[in-house]
Every structure is written in structure tokens, then in C-alpha cells.
Amino acid sequence: MTRTLLDNVNYDVLNTIALKKMAAEKAIADASGVSLGQVATALDDLESQGLVVTIGTQSLPTDDAVPALVATAATRYANLRIDPAVLEMATKFEQVNGQFLKAISSWQQVDVAGRKITNDHSDSEYDSKVLDRLDKLVSRLVQLIAVLSHQDGRFDRYAVRFIRATDLVLAGDLAYVSSPTIESVHNIWFEFHEDLLRTLGQERGE
Description:
Layout: H1 8-20, H2 25-32, H3 36-48, E1 52-55, E2 58-61, H4 65-76, H5 84-108, E3 109-112, E4 115-118, H6 124-149, H7 156-170, H8 175-178, H9 185-200
Helix pairs in contact: 1-2, 1-3, 1-4, 5-6, 6-7, 7-9
């Protein structure tokens, strides 16, 4: 079946919805960098194509959303997928990603007498060391994102989101480390990883 390729705005909006699973217009605009007016127009267009459904204020992807994104990404990012700098960046990301997953695990659990138990965050010295690791990893990722941003400016938005979340963490709002319900560092990292894989036409390895 021949798929209609999405224009850049529709792709960015639909991609954001697919990454978040469901999102309101403001969240879509904030994550994608697309203006609220453009988001509203794109949602109408995407709904007419059967790629999203809106329930109340939330838009959700249909089963046809990801195939449309995959087909569009293959064309939109054909040159990027063979760019040596981008491929090198992707390799470096996988290394940083492994370190990030270990740091998040250390944040969520602690080792007590050889057993992993939930971190109650009563040990501020331990937490401080983990947060320092996470901050360094995010800083490294922001540097890697710049390679993608050189090819497509939409990736700049990830750097903005990461910096905002880490600033909130460093200011004492620890929910922004890994809470699943807000724009936490972990949520943004997960979305970026999924986005990177789709951009490069790759499958998740772990």
C-alpha cells in the first residue's frame, strides 16, 4: 500500500504524539517546538487522515501512525542515515545510554547487603553522587544532539527540554529525575532514544 508522506510539521506533531502515546496541544507544542496554531491545524489534518484520534483534550496515535512516520522518515532522513558524523554520534549515544540506564537504576534502587531495595532518598550523599553522574551524562547527550541539530533543527528542542529538566532537579525538585508523569529527564531520554531509532531506521537493541 502506498502511503502519503507527511510534511515536516505534520511529521513533527505526529511523531511527538506517538512518542508520548497521548498528549494535549500545549504539550505537543512544547515538546516539538511547533507553534500552538500549527499544532491545531496539523491535528485537524492528521485526524482527517486517520492518523490520530482526539478524546477530550488528548490526542492519541492510531495504528496507522507509526507506519506513516516510518515511511516519511525513510525519505526525510535518507541523507542523514548515511552521514558519517551522524552514525558516529549514534554509536557514541549507545555508550552513553548504557551509562544512563545504570545511573537511573542507581537512583531508583540501592544495594543493601547484596540486595536491591527501593531508594528512599534518605542518603543525600549517595543521591548527590548519582545526580552528578546524571548531570554529566545529560551534558554529554546535549553535545551529541548538536550533531543531529546540524541536520534538522527540530532536535534542538531536546536540548532545551533536557536542560530545563536538569535545572529543576538541581534546584531540588527530584521528581524531574524519573517521574513517569512529567517532563522528567528519564521520560525525555526515552523519547529521544525512540526518536533517534526512527530517524535512523533502526530497531531497539536492548
